[in-house]
Each structure stands twice: as structure tokens, then as C-alpha cells.
Design brief:
By secondary structure, the chain is of the alpha/beta class. The protein has helices at about 45-55, 70-80, 95-110, 145-154; strands at about 15-20, 25-30, 60-65, 85-90, 120, 130, 135-140.
Length: about 150
Amino acid sequence: VGEVSAVRGTTKEGETYRLTLPDSAWQIWITDTPGLLEANDRDNQAAIARRIAASADLLLFVIDNDLTQAEFQVLQTLTALGKRAIVVLNKRDLYLESDLSQLMARLRSRLADLVDPADLVAIAAAPRPAQLESGDWIASAPELWPLVSRLSEL
């Protein structure tokens, strides 16, 4: 939704976007926040993110691998505030199906006391291009349906 960069700290303050669910009149406002775990937080970005999260109706907690202890603690703190969270595993395209299945099972187990198992979804927001045998490159479309589907069920 927002600007994406390999460099942490790209989002400096909350940026809000409107999403209309397919085949629905429902509109969802999504606010992209600064990271909660910025190592070099000179602009107090983590405090901005926490303030925005505290006022949200629903949290999309985006990760790209197994949860670190610090991420787990942040999610635990946010859900203790009574916030419902959907944990979104991004970059599913980087995993073999068997590895993805194992990772999802491990996450479901670790998150059992924090989120409903159905509130853990795997997506590929910006899949990496793949090289064909011919040497040509092919870009894949984003795979967002698991998240969109879950949002439409709420």
C-alpha cells in the first residue's frame, strides 16, 4: 500500500489509504505506520506507530519470517489492549510450499493465545520476478487474496 524499501524507517508518520473490498460496498481505511522496532528511532517513529495502533479498530501485523521475540512482545502488548490483530506473513513467494506450511504451523502454535488461527494469513505483496528457461523474466501479480478474503469475513 505504502512506499516499500529495504531500508528501515521509510515510513516517517502514519499514511492512510482507502481499500474497497471486491464485490462489496465496504471500504476499509488502512494506515501504514512507522515500524515499531526501529533500531535508530531518532524521529520517535515507534511512539507514533503505537499511538496509531492504539486508536485502530483492527491491526494488520505484517511480518516476513518467523516472529522475533521483540515482535512477539509488541504483538502481545497490542492484543492486551483489546486490539484484534490479523498477522500477515508477507513474501510467501520466497518459501517452498512445505517450508511455508511448517512456518505457518509454527506461527499458529506461537500465536495461539493472541490471535484466532484464521487471523494468520500468508501473502505476497510484491512477488519477485522469476527467470524462465528462455532467460526472459516474468513478473507475478501480487497474491493478496488470503488477506482480502479474511477482511471481507470480518
